[in-house]
Amino acid sequence: MTSIPRVVVIGAGSTGAATAHDLALRGFLVTVVERGEIASGTSGRNHCLLHSGGRYAVNDQESARECISERRTLEEIMPDLLERNGGLFVALNEEDLAFKETFLAACEVCGIPARELPLARVRKMEPFLNPDVLAAVEVPDAVFEPFHFCLAFLATARTNGAEVRTYNEVLELRTEGGAVSGLKVRDHRTGVTSMIGADLVVNAAGPWVGEIAAMAGLSVPVTPTPGVMVTMDVRLNNLVINRLNRPADGDIVVPQRATSIIGTTSWVVEDPDLIPVPPDHVSRMLACGQQLIPAVAKVKVRASVAVARPLVNKTGGDSRNVSRTFECFDHAAEGVEGLVTIAGGKTTSSRAMAERVADVVCAKLDKQVPCRTRETALVSYRDYYR
Ligand SMILES: Cc1cc2nc3c(=O)[nH]c(=O)nc-3n(C[C@H](O)[C@H](O)[C@H](O)COP(=O)(O)OP(=O)(O)OC[C@H]3O[C@@H](n4cnc5c(N)ncnc54)[C@H](O)[C@@H]3O)c2cc1C
After folding, report:
1. pTM for this model (two decimals)
2. Final residue of a domain: which of 288, 310, 332?
3. How many domains are contained in the chain?
């Protein structure tokens, strides 16, 4: 081991980017290897919702608490990267209306500021919202731009010495005496294959974590769980519009720049590189989106995409009901040293995921440095290219 331990992070999505930042800030030599461009996996194509936690307040309170806590932290450390527009949970029928008190009580328990707004005001704020809404509750949802989100973490990591190698795909993990000691990568721009040595490897490959773990003969209980999102050609809402009920298909419309994104569905695939966009999912999104915002019917669809959540699903249960929280796996428990996997969570919780895995890295490499990412403002994402 060198005097400063070298940690290689696999993946430059939101998890890997935030992890690189945390580890570099704690004084490790960090190398990020990413097979494509930054945020070219799930992080680059999600709803872009910086969750208030409202969506999980009733069913998944651990995740809801993580979201509101991280939403506040991200507002402090990356204020220029967020659209702090807020969100509404709207009731469209009696069942939604009956859910309102449960929702408000759950938000209070989770520490999520939530208040009912007068409908006359809501209609002024959201002229395209279904005029028949029966109630609307405001929460502090926000919106991020995923590429800039990841870039800001990596730009800051680079100011602290991290190296980022994009277009470098991990082909093999090198093991010596039962421990991972490095990896073999191919640089797709040059075609050159090389070895990178590591005191520890962090597997932050999102829905591909299972493929990386398999290179060391390991398995992780992470299921690639896609969702379809339909992007409309026009921005139809100012705030994030959520259905006031338990999470279900097509219950959210997130404004993103000049568009509105309707989402989402949830099913399981074997290969996160081969995700179809089922036409019936698209029509379901459009039908559900129209219930929230009738003008969806009059606007062109710009794109329909599907990406996979790296969902930690230990029971193999229905993916809709599995917690959206995250987990860190130290593979020493299965007899392989030198490899730690971090998976699950959300882009919203990426800083907290990074803190968790960096704590594990510190303990394993005997370098006790506290986490400082909560109070360290990120540099501009533009600095990545400077
Ligand atoms: C439909 C949908 C909507 C969502 N909406 C939101 C939302 O609005 N807000 C939110 O907070 N979260 C949202 N999420 C969740 C969030 O997008 C994910 O939890 C998050 O993006 C996962 O980030 P990650 O870095 O772990 O994975 P990824 O972003 O997938 O990053 C993993 C990276 O590893 C790389 N990689 C894979 N294999 C290799 C290899 N062999 N060598 C080198 N690199 C490799 C990939 O190219 C990829 O860039 C959504 C998820 C889905 C499915």
Report:
1. 0.97
2. 310
3. 2
